[in-house]
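>> Question from a student workshop board

For tomorrow's exercise we were told to take the sequence and the ligand below, predict the bound structure, and bring the output to class. My setup keeps failing. Could a helper post the expected result so I can at least see what it should look like? The ligand is adenosine-5-diphosphoribose.
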Amino acid sequence: MASTAARPPLPPRAPIVPPEDLESFQQHLNKSTRILALLGAGLSASSGLPTFRGAGGLWRTHEATQLATPEAFGRDPGLVWQFYSYRRHKALQAKPNPAHYALAELARKKDGFMTLSQNVDGLSPRAGHPASQLKLLHGSLFDVKCSDFFCKYTESANYTDPIVPALEIPTDESDPTTISALEARAELDISDENVALPELRISDLPRCPLCKKGLLRPGVVWFGEMLPTGVINDIEKWMSDSAKIDLIMVIGTSARVYPAAGYVDSARAKGARVAVVNMDRNDAPARGLYNGDWFFEGDAAKIVPEILKSVIGEITEMPDAAVEA
Ligand code: APR
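>> Workshop helper replied:
Here is what the output should look like for this input. Compare the format with yours to find the bug.
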């Protein structure tokens, strides 16, 4: 007869965040009425989207940050469109993760919670984050506008992928006898510099339907450009609505890009305690952490739902808010 030897119990799993930090954070969160969040690319990392700096910050041989400039677009609009078309495609394939849903739920639970996102990937809106409590500091991959200074054409929620046929990601159909039909259609990874980019002519790129002269460009804020005036005004109004801010959560951002990173100081000046969620302990906000701040080290997708639980409970993933492909 087979014996069933008792298995040794599994070792207890280490908590995601130290219990004493979790408790003091949640006590503060529960009584906070004016809360800010500053979000960055690390929030979407576990949805499979690369960050800008550090690992994943290179696209082919180019620093991602070097392609995000008006000068790069002026020099080589085809290359810049290939980069953004790839990012649009990847963002559409990605899904919001539990942290996006948790922040959206916190916004529904607390009227005085405002989120400032540097992310252009559309995942917070798709997680159902209320639009009135979400300011997109750096625009959206799914907005497009005319690059001609004198033309004011803009278009939002453009999910056409690819935006023009010439930007279709090529597939590997090199040897259909040895690869299955499905694999033969597998997309090539054009972020890999060893994969040849398709030839592009300027006439292949998206053109403004209004002035018919300018090229369309992604509706994101590039280095050296102003943040959208409406967004800045809304944030300034929110900031000045009350003399105090209780808390700012700085999630998945290297907090190096201004003016976005400056909101941490503005919140602190109004009394906010700072809670950082980041994989990298070196990525605290520029002026460091003070007594009474928190640093939660690890994956935002796991930590954010955990630390917000005292207000939002267990999060259930909701259906992805519709993206008409
Ligand atoms: N969970 C939490 N943090 C993470 C994770 C993760 N799973 N993965 C990476 N991070 C952290 C990194 O340690 C880093 O601090 O996310 C941060 C990402 O930093 P950046 O790549 O600099 O991205 P971000 O701060 O959003 O950049 C700001 O710069 O290039 C411009 O306009 C672009 O909006 C962008 C802005």
